[in-house]
Amino acid sequence: RDITAYKRAEQQIERHRIELAHVGRLATTGEMAAGLAHELNQPLYALNNFAQGALRRLEAGTLDHDSLTAVLQDVARESQRAADTIRSLRRYVRKREQQRLDTDANEIVRRVIRLVASEAKRRDVTIDTSYAENLRQVCCDPIQIEQVVLNLILNAFDAMSDESPDERRLGVRTRSLKCAAVEFSISDCGRGLAVGEEYKIFDAFYTTKEEGIGLGLAISRTIVEAHGGQLVAAANPDRGITMSFSLPTPSSGVPTV
Predict the structure, then answer these.
(1) What is the pLDDT of residues 177-187, one digit of tens each?
(2) Which residues touch 210 (CB under 8 Å, ≥6 apart)?
(3) Which of 60, 81, 86, 174 is the most exposed place for a label (fewest CB within 10 A)?
(4) Is the CB of residue 184 less than 8 Å from the CB of residue 150?
């Protein structure tokens, strides 16, 4: 049989999925703009202070070789910090074709935690992480899976916005599943879910946020399912919810959780 039309339709669907994921990343970055600006302002402010201080000491004739070396080391460290932040943002938001790579699941989470550090501080959220040891790698597009983790974490931040600061605790965990898969889970201490809402939240344009458009979880579910995994929501025994998704390891098939 001639399957040209079928293959062409498959490629079109994949292109549409990539475009949708890219738009989602841009929207998420926009939501984080205040935190990201703060992340860049810190090293820039430090650079200005180091430079101004060095100039004053130079004009006063009190800047010796050792002091100058220390100042230049501080300048180099802070400029590298700013460059790393910009590089991370560019890597996250750029438009590119999907790339499936064998990837360290824990490193995916660590990169996202670094990206949301300023946002967590701004919102008074404490992040508790638990990384499983000796995890098998997952075959995925790391940028897209970072997008899923980031979206789930930001949703959790929003869910806890009405709680007192000392109760805003976020749990992020990785673990191995018996079905040759790796599970990522994000737990919050927020308002939880209404009856039946654990299914509705994945529908496009369904949102509980006043300014939300309801596409983040729909995009996330599409990405996870395209990787052969599942994204689910469950109420915690005490309060809040846990969002979790599984990805197969390179030697496995589609996991069942």
Answers:
(1) 887 889 999 99
(2) none
(3) 60
(4) no
Distance set, CA 177 to CA 115, 132, 135, 256, 257 (Å): 27, 11, 10, 9, 8
N- to C-terminal Cα separation, the chain: 36
Is the pTM higher than 0.70? no
Contacts of 45 (CB under 8 A, 6+ apart): none
Q: Once rounded to an integer, what is the mean pLDDT over residues 98-123?
A: 86
Residue 216 and residue 202: Cα distance in Å, rounded?
8
Alpha carbon distances (Å) from 214 to 97, 137, 155, 199, 218: 25, 31, 11, 13, 7
- Range 150-170 average pLDDT: 89
Do 239 and 189 touch, CB atoms closer than 8 A?
yes
Of the candidates 136, 130, 129, the residue with the CA atom closest to the CA atom of residue 248: 136
